[in-house]
Amino acid sequence: MSTQDDKDKATKQDRLIEHSYDGIQEYDNPMPRWWLLTFAGTIIFAVIYLFNVGPVGNGKGRIADYEDDMKAFAAAHPAPTGEVSGDKLLAMMKDEDALHEGEEAFQKFCASCHRMDGGGLIGPNLADNAWIHGGRITDIYATVVNGVLEKGMPAWGTMLKPEQVEQVVAYVASLQGSNPANPKPPQGTPVTP
Ligand code: HEC
């Protein structure tokens, strides 16, 4: 046997743990120090992270953080409420850019049911003066925002941006008197402008 082997044997024997189970003995091989320190570090980090304090988070706590984020998002994306100033919508009807945006949105989202020219298909004619849900511009706005779900008119308030809803409503109102060819017969009550 070489001297190297003897030496290995000696040090291993030194670290043998006293006890023996059924004649089997164990070496005492502790985890290396760097491993233990990393392990302890992760536990400490987890505790700090849990409470979101000082060095890890901003110290406010995770729930407060989440609520802050939600508030910031809500402030940046106000949901249309069905309340809008009629004057604002009427002014939009004179704003070329707004009408143009509204027309694009109408062709994209509404024409499938109301036809490109608003003459009506699955949904009613929007170019005549008869309205099921009211013909004031604020009524139209409320119908578009809330939809008429049981009749198949989606609630656009949750799908379009608030200003998009306003633009498309201004556009719909501007269709009054445009007399599209082969319109769907009037439905609802005629409203004198
Ligand atoms: C999936 C089909 C569908 C789409 C898409 C759709 N609508 Fe409608 N819409 C309807 C139906 C159906 C009605 C009739 C509801 C009723 O009978 O009460 C309606 C009714 C309306 C009314 C009320 C008409 C009235 O006489 O009071 C307005 C205004 C309207 N839609 C605007 C829009 C706008 C604006 C869009 C696009 C952003 C749109 N709709 C997209 C199906 C649709």
Task: Give a brief description.
With 193 residues, the chain is mainly α. The protein contains 7 helices and 4 strands, in the order αββααααβααβ.
Descriptive account of the structure:
By secondary structure, the protein is mainly α. It has 2 domains: 3-76, no CATH class; 86-190, Cytochrome Bc1 Complex, Chain D, domain 2, CATH 1.10.760. The protein has 7 helices and 4 strands; from the N terminus they run H-E-E-H-H-H-H-E-H-H-E. It has helices spanning 3-15, 33-51, 62-76, 86-92, 96-114, 137-146, 162-174; strands at residues 16-21, 24-27, 130-131, 189-190. The strands form 2 sheets. A two-stranded antiparallel ribbon has the order 1-2. Helix 5 packs across helix 7 (162-174). The chain is rod-shaped, with a radius of gyration of 36 Å. The model has no long low-confidence stretch (mean pLDDT 86). The site of heme C (HEC) has 25 residues, from helix 5, helix 6 and helix 7.
The Cα radius of gyration reads 36 Å
Strand order of the largest sheet: 1-2
Helix fraction by DSSP (H/I, runs of at least 4)? 40-55%
Most strands sheet: 2 strands, antiparallel
Amino- and carboxy-terminal Cα gap: 112 Å
Shape: rod-shaped
The CATH topology of the largest domain: Cytochrome Bc1 Complex, Chain D, domain 2
CATH superfamily of the largest domain: Cytochrome c-like domain
Counting H and I runs of at least 4 residues, what is the number of helices?
A: 7
The CATH class of the largest domain, by name, is: Mainly Alpha
Percent strand equals: 5-15%
- Total individual domains: 2
SSE pattern, N- to C-terminal: HEEHHHHEHHE
Molecules bound to protein: heme C
Taking pLDDT < 50 over at least 5 consecutive residues as the criterion, the unreliable ranges are none
Q: In the CATH classification, which architecture of the largest domain applies?
A: Orthogonal Bundle
Based on helices, strands and strand pairing, what is the structural class?
mainly alpha
Mean pLDDT score: 86
Secondary structure: number of strands = 4
